Amino acid sequence: MPPEKPDLGKVDLEKPHLVLIDGSGFIFRAFHALPPMSSPQGVPVNAVYGFTNMLARLLRDHVGTHLAVIFDAGRTTFRNEIYPQYKAHRPEAPEDLRPQFGLIRDATAAFNVPSIELAGWEADDLLAAYAKAAVEAGGCCTIISSDKDLMQLVRPGVELMDPMKQKPIREAEVEAKFGVRPDQVVDVQALMGDSTDNVPGVPGIGPKGAAQLVNEYGTLEQILAAAPAMKASKRRDNLIEHADAARMSRRLVLLDDNAPMPQPISELGCREPVRETLRDWLEEMGFHSTIQRMGLGLAAKPRPFMRQIVRPEDKAAARDEVAAVTIPDAPYGPYETVTDMDALDRWIADARAAGVMAVDTETDSLNARQANMVGLSLSVAPGKACYVPFLHETIRDLLEEDSTGEAFVRQLDRTEALERLKPLLQDASVLKVFQNAKYDLTVFRGAGIPEITPIDDTMLISYAQSAGEHGQGMDELSELHLGHTPVTYDSVTGTGRKRIPFAQVAIEAATAYAAEDADVTLRLWQVLRPQLRTRQALALYEEIERPLIQILTDMEDVGIKVDATELRRMSADFAERMGTIEQEIHEQVGRSFNVGSPKQLGEILFDEMGLPGGKRTKSGSWGTDSGVLESLAEQGHELPQKILAWRQLAKLKSTYADALVQQMDQDTQRVHTSFQMAITTTGRLSSNEPNLQNIPIRTEEGARIRKAFVATPGCVLLSADYSQIELRLLAHVAKIEPLLEAFRLGQDIHARTASEVFGIPLEGMDPLTRRRAKAINFGIIYGISAFGLAQQLQISPGEARSYIDAYFARYPGIRAYMERTKEEAKKHGYVTTPFGRRCYVPGITEKNGARRAYAERQAINAPLQGGAADIIKRAMVHLARRLPATGLKAKMVLQVHDELLFEVEEQDAKALADFVRTEMEGAAKLDVALEVETGIGPSWADAH
Question: Which domains are seen in the chain, by residue range?
Answer without folding.
Answer: 17-177+255-266 (3.40.50.1010), 332-554 (3.30.420.10), 667-733+864-944 (3.30.70.370)
